[in-house]
FAD-binding domain-containing protein
Amino acid sequence: MPGFLAELNIFFLKKTTRGEEVRVRALDRKALLEALAEELPPGTVRFSSKVVSIDTERAAGDSSVTVVLGLDDGTVIRAKVLIGCDGVHSVVARWLGLSEPASSGRSAVRGLSVFPGGHGVKRELRQFLSEGLRAGMVPISDTDIYWFLVNNTVAAEKEAAGDPVKTLLEVTDNLARHMPAEYLDVVRHSDHGNLSWAPLLYRNPVSVLLGPAARGPVTVAGDAFHPMTPDMAQGGCSALEDAVVLARALSREATPAEGVSAYVAQRRWRAAWLVAGAYLSGWIQQGGTNVGGVRGRLVKVFRDWIFYRFVFPRLADTMWFDCGDLTPPPPTAAVGKSHHIE
């Protein structure tokens, strides 16, 4: 049985090298999505619509390009811009020719635990390190706690993933059985409808940096562009950055294709760095994925004595990024550069 090594609070995260204070703000994903959706006009979101084909066409005597989407119910949608925000296994990214996401060799169980009478847990991120495992929990509200367990991928995942009962048993009776009782109690209070166990995937940073992330007025954003492991908690944050940069680029360039090109050029370097930083952070914090013996011990020494004290604060510096604003360009700069985006 792997021995429990340490509980690690976020002392190494409280300040970046620039003196910025780092705070963990846990949100209910459903509540966030609902808040975003409520800002859109009714009917904007079309649910249960699978894209089965993507094509482009040019109008006779016109240089503009129209993107043609085919849905599985036979619906055809034409648009001036296509932004693929369809996740790690993006249909749009595949159409563009970006490389397929790769396995990090690790998987994550994620859950939401509910305590109707209140949990009484202090509102801070707590992390527990063990051999080949990294677990943590952070309250979202007075009644809900988000928890996670990152493990080197094991054979049991194939059978248990998708079955909440089997997943919880695997966590409490096997993977995390040596974890603190408080953590296990949180796990046992999990809402079965908010439980997942999936491999942690990422896109090779070289592909993010050099791959075909745009073709005419078609591009990708968020996980469809730069899937990363969750070890720096920047997946959703970087997607919001994408949105700001893309919206500004589309508003300022002469054509949708030029706007898309400007957006990709601006986002490539930062996105590639975030993917690489997250992977490195996770690999080291877990003591080296599938690394044992002397090498494994050296990784752990580096993690406990150097990484958390000197390296991670510098990685945390990248969390601060000035997206700029969405203020329209001056009227003189916008002459001849207006276009309608659908």
User: Anything to note?
Assistant: The radius of gyration is 22 Å. The longest helix spans residues 256-285. The longest strand covers residues 102-114. Residues 1-5, 334-342 have pLDDT under 50 and may be disordered.
